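A protein record in our archive is deliberately plain, so that people and models can read it alike. The tokens are whole numbers drawn from a learned vocabulary of local backbone shapes. For reference, a complete record is included directly beneath this paragraph.
>
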Amino acid sequence: GAIYGTSSNGTRAAFTRPANESTINGLYLVGGSSHPGGGLPLVGMSAEIVANLINSAKPR
């Protein structure tokens, strides 16, 4: 496995990562293989993005 998720080689690699919100209702993607990418700081950002998506999806 790759410790930083999918290969980041190539000029378009950053644009091919899956989004954090899936087309399946209630399924979210977080980690080095999803947006924004690999490495501890970016995985933390990915978790923050998903937490905000979940909070904004809650009925008020």
About this structure: The mean pLDDT is 86.
